[in-house]
Amino acid sequence: MIGAAQPLRNPARHVADQSRNLPDLFLNRVRATPQRVAYKHKERGRWIDTTWHGFHDQSSRVASWLITRGIQAGDKVCVVGSTRPEWVLCDMGGQLAGAVTIGAYPTSSPDQLAYIVEHSESKIVFVEGKEEIAKILEIKDRIPGVQCVVVWRRDALGPELAGNALFAVFEDVLDTSADPKAIAERVDAVKPDDTAIIVYTSGTTGPPKGAMISQGNIISYIRGTQGLVPFDADDISLNFLPMAHVAERIAGFYARISAGITAAYASSVPAVLEEVKEVRPTVFGSVPRIFEKAYAKMKGEVAKAPAGKQKVFAKAEAVGREVVRHWQRGEKVPLGLAIQYKLFDKLVFSKIREVFGGRVRNFLTGAAPISYEILEFFWAAGFPIYEVYGMTEATVITHGNRPGDVRLGTVGKAIAPMVEEKLADDGEILIRGATVFKGYYKNPEATAEAIDKDGWLHTGDIGRREPDGSLRIVDRKKHIIITAGGKNITPANIEQDIKGQDALISNVHAHGDRRAYLTALVTIHPMEAIEWARANNLLTDNALADRLVKALMENPLARPEGLDGVMQTVTERPEIRSRIAAAVQRANRSLSRVETIKKVYVLERDFSLEEDEITPTMKIKRKNVEKKFTALFDRLYEDKAFGIVIEDENKGAAVSI
């Protein structure tokens, strides 16, 4: 039944307990299971396996090449590219050479990339393809410390750069003979307090800060989280989230090395939904947006189905949700309800699970809140989604729901004894323990602000303790809105409630600091806008539509030429504005009067990475949005005819557009 912990057939045997540092962890894994599959990737339509022995051979060649290039212990190596085998080979090659490895998002602008490479003092930069090469060429005068740029694909370099001394080709790096003695000397010299990686935070309030995560931080994290969501030795994960993010890097890669499970690297983000059916993963980690998209897609398909099928789905959903509610209340599911659930599980839910391959035993999600409505539905459908919480500065996860101990809508309990946790007087979550990072690179002032004299990491998040000890995240401390009436309001839950009402909505930014009431800026999803425009004959140029969809599938943060025009056409439509107004009104029903949104403005485009309104991980840069749209917010309060007025349902008034 829902929520019960499932026994493992063949529990994975971690090697973290016997490992001194990260490269030692890798070598211990190679020795333990040399012929088991470390990862697989797709070439010409076929999945190719690489064993741990093969992984070791190639990463040793990378390490030896770095050593021959003069890279010393502690030197910095930067990797810029999508999540694929080359990324992990460069990362582990750097670790075996005793270097500090740094990741940068392939979506980074030239300025952002220049800042990370220059600030980190990276000497070698590994890049994926033509786009990254173009950025390097644009910023090369600003990164004089870079000795060599290694391109993963030879064909991406082009004949005009073939003889350029700045560039090398990864294929040639892999032709280097491995030097086991030199590597062993480097690995033996690595100390627990040495910096292993520097992770540049998204920078919602200014330039990104480089969080120094030590070898000891990572080993302590892996040891401490081994029992959070237990691995089976035969588990396989589908990996596609950016390796530049601390969650994929540490939880999705280094922890997997300790457990020895296989990763399948998706050939691209657009291919994930097809390749998940081929790989049939048993472990799946993702950000909430993937589940939100899947839920919206499901609901959309159901809406197109015949009335009979719609009724069956609605009944199945109602029964499933009721079962989840009994479980969450700690009540036994009545026999009649249990029988109905078993029937609908076979008729409906089992088919939904096939979308993710039908074998996923554990889903992990974090980085942002997920709508309770969506979370409840997926649990009803047999998707065990475990919400977790953490931050870069605490070496990823510090709290988590786990098999047999789940409280929906919370991030679970602190992972003891790995971390201590307490709430400050104002509700801020404080963390202390072996996974708290070393500090920010070249920024002792910011480090002192983050870690107090007693060793407590100030997370900046406000939390609330539930009766069972689980932690509920309320909002970021710096995001608290104080109204003109002196009421403290946390916008995150309000924004999430609105987003959960309609799949069309991409982002919501609630505003109201020192104001008499709350307003909001709402954006819609470009992909949904394109689909809606097509369905309503507002976009009849199929070539343009296909080009826009392709660009967004390859990069959800892209802003291809022609998109702004489509978005403006869609957002001006009365039907769209009515949908947004209705979604806000529905969300208002569950909010206190002071939290309700009274007016909204639908932006003619989504928030943009180029405009510095969101981070590469799609978090809203609240200060930037507040500053950029100051005049717009002022007008919402000053001009009665501007924006969408959301009337109070209790007064019986209709929504005014």
Q: How would you explain this protein's 3D organization?
A:
- The protein is an alpha/beta fold.
- It has 23 helices and 27 strands.
- The strands form 6 sheets. Strands 7-6-5-3-4-8-9-19 form an 8-stranded mixed beta sheet, sandwiched between helices.
- Helix 13 packs across helix 15.
- The longest helix has 22 residues.
- It is globular.
List the helices and strands and how they pair.
Elements: H1 22-32, E1 37-43, E2 46-51, H2 52-68, E3 76-80, H3 85-96, E4 100-104, H4 110-120, E5 122-127, H5 130-139, E6 148-151, H6 154-157, E7 167-169, H7 170-173, H8 180-189, E8 195-200, E9 210-214, H9 215-224, E10 236-239, H10 246-259, E11 262-265, H11 272-279, E12 283-286, H12 288-304, H13 307-328, H14 335-353, E13 362-365, H15 372-380, E14 385-391, E15 396-400, E16 413-414, E17 419-423, E18 428-433, E19 439-440, H16 444-450, E20 457-465, E21 471-476, E22 481-482, E23 488-489, H17 491-499, E24 505-511, E25 518-524, H18 526-535, H19 542-554, H20 563-571, H21 574-588, E26 597-602, H22 622-628, H23 630-638, E27 644-645
Parallel strand pairs: 1-11, 3-4, 3-5, 4-8, 5-6, 6-7, 10-11, 12-13, 13-14, 25-26
Antiparallel strand pairs: 1-2, 8-9, 9-19, 14-15, 15-16, 17-18, 18-20, 20-21, 22-23, 24-25, 26-27
Helix pairs in contact: 1-2, 1-10, 2-3, 4-5, 13-14, 13-15, 17-21, 18-19, 18-20
